């Protein structure tokens, strides 16, 4: 992992080991990321199943957060509480999970997806609502709803633009100086 300056200075390495789907804590002191695992092998239980790790930026210390039979991926911090959201495979699909205060001894399962996995979660800063990819659709987790109504397909309406060419065609004859 590298710290990039917005003023154009050289990047500073803050971690020698990195992984994918990294998320920075709201306090900017911890990075949580996943190592190994395969997003398309939800039932894999071998030595390369994915785990979540954390990097304490100040000390450079790494901590393995999970050690489960299946893979954990897509960590994302809450900006309102001390929660970390992530996806964990139940052997069939990646399901949304939440832990409080980085206590992985008591994860809370937040979804019951039956066919396809949750992927690439994103948490709203204002209210902890979550959107995630579910095959070829976008789903949402709404913490204000009750029961199975918390996880639903997100209705997305894309209004069609009236497509008009932005090219202006002008026929000219002996009037070039108007355009030079």
Task: Report on this structure.
The model has no long low-confidence stretch (mean pLDDT 90). The protein is 0% helix and 36% strand. The strands form four sheets. It has a four-stranded antiparallel β-sheet with strand order 3-4-5-6, with no helix packed on it. It is extended. By secondary structure, the chain is mainly beta.
Features:
single chain; about 180 residues; mainly beta; four-stranded antiparallel sheet; extended
The number of helical runs is: 0
Number of strands: 14
Reading side by side through the largest sheet, how are the strands ordered?
3-4-5-6
Mean pLDDT over the residues: 90
Strand content: 35-45%
The helicity comes to under 10%
Shape: extended
Largest sheet: 4 strands, antiparallel
Helix/strand/pairing class, anyone? mainly beta
Radius of gyration: 23 Å
| C-alpha termini separation | 52 Å
The parts where pLDDT drops under 50 for at least 5 residues are none
SSE order, as H and E? Answer: EEEEEEEEEEEEEE
